[in-house]
Amino acid sequence: MTDVLGVSHDVIARAKHDLAAAFRAAAMHGYNEGIDNHFSLAVPGRTDLFLLNRFGPHWSEITSDDIITVDFDGNIVDGHGNWEVTAFMIHRGCHRARPDAQAVFHTHMPYASALSMTVDGFNTRIHQNSMYFHNRMARLAYGGFAEGASEGDRIASAVTEGAILVLLENHGVIVIGQNVADAWHKLYFLEQAARLQVLAQSTGSPLIEVSEEVAQFTADSWHREAQNAPQLFAAVKRQLGWLDVNFD
């Protein structure tokens, strides 16, 4: 059955279900910050609509009913509640600038955000996990709250083709995925890598960097490893007690 968006009702329901699970998983791992930060997902089969969390609920309590559908003009075309202005500006900018950026996850998770505050930033050549993002990371100077279209578009300009991570200096991170499971896979291993870098730097000992060739080889291996993202996401949902629903 097709709903008012011209997309199968079951497809929309499954997308909202998975996106809500990602919020709860992020809260379980401590990636959230109060009721702020935001995840979005392009509506399957549409290039002009995206799913976004409504402002208000804590991530640990978000359900499918807290996911709203928004168009690029800011109209809520499905769901109840309101979007937060920086959430809309950032995610509208990213989805509009790069249509293949299906899932856009923005957090201020502690270790990755800590590295966004440093001159050297996130080093993609010091640990196997960090090499996931080697030559696939962009970096952007801080420009203040994204309270207008210009700042949202400036942030979106860093989401270049091939980038799966944007390190927002003095702010946080944006992770780009092909779907919810893929974005979660990247978000999880990013924070793992950032935590290890912070711990290694805290020893005061110089960091060991692998060669460019080894880093790129490992990044390519990660690209293949990312095919296991659905299994990781399914395991996280089991941890949450978040049972998959038969939408067919």
Attribute tags:
248 residues; 7 helices; eight-stranded mixed β-sheet; alpha+beta; 8 strands; L-fuculose-1-phosphate Aldolase
Would you write up a description of this structure?
- This protein is of the alpha+beta class and 248 residues long.
- It has one domain (9-240): Class II aldolase/adducin N-terminal domain (L-fuculose-1-phosphate Aldolase).
- Helix content is 40%, strand content 15%.
- The chain contains 7 helices and 8 strands; from the N terminus they run αββββαβαβαββααα.
- The chain has helices at residues 9-29, 85-97, 110-116, 149-156, 180-202, 212-225, 229-240; strands spanning 38-42, 49-53, 67-71, 76-78, 103-107, 137-140, 165-168, 172-177.
- It has an 8-stranded mixed β-sheet, with helices on both faces.
- Strand 7 (165-168) and strand 8 form a beta hairpin.
- Helix 3 crosses helix 5 (180-202) and helix 5 (180-202) crosses helix 7 (229-240).
- The chain is globular, with a radius of gyration of 18 Å.
- The mean pLDDT is 94.
